Known about the structure:
Helices cover 33% and strands 16% of the residues. The protein has helices spanning 15-22, 85-97, 116-119, 122-128, 137-148, 159-162, 170-177, 259-269, 289-313, 319-324, 331-336, 341-356, 365-373; strands at residues 11-12, 30-33, 42-51, 60-67, 72-75, 106-110, 132-136, 192-194, 212-215, 224-228, 233-237, 277-280, 286-287.
Amino acid sequence: xxxxxxxxxxxxxxxxxxxxxxxxxxxxxxxxxxxxxxxxxxxxxxxxxxxxxxxxxxxxxxxxxxxxxxxxxxxxxxxxxxxxxxxxxxxxxxxxxxxxxxxxxxxxxxxxxxxxxxxxxxxxxxxxxxxxxxxxxxxxxxxxxxxxxxxxxxxxxxxxxxxxxxxxxxxxxxxxxxxxxxxxxxxxxxxxxxxxxxxxxxxxxxxxxxxxxxxxxxxxxxxxxxxxxxxxxxxxxxxxxxxxxxxxxxxxxxxxxxxxxxxxxxxxxxxxxxxxxxxxxxxxxxxxxxxxxxxxxxxxxxxxxxxxxxxxxxxxxxxxxxxxxxxxxxxxxxxxxxxxxxxxxxxxxxxxxxxxxxxxxxxxxxxxxxxxxxxxxxxxxxxxxx
Length: 386
Ligand SMILES: [Zn+2]
C-alpha cells in the first residue's frame, strides 16, 4: 500500500466512516442506499467494519451483510485474531439480533480474495452455521496451487532472476520451497465457485446483493467483485480503495500473468460501474468511481514512467539495480532492510515488463494506457511505493 496525492475527488457515503478512517478508528455499521441506477432506495445491505491491525483506512476491513428474505449473505467475514473467534461470533450475532435475525440464519459466506484480513473469520463462521461457502473459481485456483506447490509465478524471487547480491534472498527462497496453504484459508472445499459473469441466481444462490460476479485480477490473480446494477451497488473489495491504492500482485499463488497489466485491465473494465455506489474492502463507502479510477491509474502509470526513465538510460539493468534507482517511501536503504524487499523487487520486475510490453500494432504500452484512462503527461511524476 502506498500514499496517493491528497484531495481525492470521491464522495464518502457516510461521514462517520470517513471520519473514522482519518482517525484510525473502526466506524459503526452503515446501511447502504444504492447509487443512481438503483434510484437511491434503501437496501437490506449493511457494511459492518471489523477491526484489524492497521492504521488509517486499514484500521478495519468491511464485512458486507445482506439481510435477504430467505437468508443472510456475508461477503468477506473479515479478520479475527487468534482465539478471538468466540468474540467475533458473539459480536456478529449481536449485530444480527439487533436487526431481528440470528447467526444461524446465515446461508451464504462469500470471499472476495484469499487475504487474511478478508477471509480469516470465514472458518469459524462456516463452522458455526450451515452456510454455503462461495469463492471465485480463479482465486481458488491460487489456493490449490499453494497446496500442490505448483506455482506458476514468473515473478518468483529467484536470485539469478533479480540479480541480487549473494545471500540477500536466501530467506525468501527457503520460504518459497516450504510454501503451504496459509492457515487463514478454510480447510473446507467451496460449495460454489463463481466464474466471471456468473449470475449468482444461476447457482441457486441469493443474488440480492451481489447479483453478478466480476473477476478483477491484479491485487490478487482471481480477485472477485460483485455487482447489482438494479440496487446501484458495486462491491469492489480491494480492487479499488479510497485514500490508498491497493497493492498489486499479492496473491498466495500466481497464475502466470503480469499483475500490473492485469490490474490496469481490471481498472479499465470496471468503468461500466462508474455511476454505482462503491463498497470497498476498507475505508469508506463512496461514489465517484470514475474519479477514483483515474487517480489510481495516475498512480500506477506514474510509477511506470519512473521505471521507464531508468530503462531508457540502461535497458539491460538488473531488477535489483533498477529497484535501487526508484523512489521508496522508506528509501532504498530502508527497503533493503525491510520484510517488504521481496514484494518491492517483484513489483519492480512487473513494472519493467509493463514498460517493455507492446501492443499488437506496436503502440507503446504507457502511452496507450494514458489514452485509455484519459491522462495527460501530468501523470508522469514519480510515486513512492511501500
Ligand atoms: Zn487484499
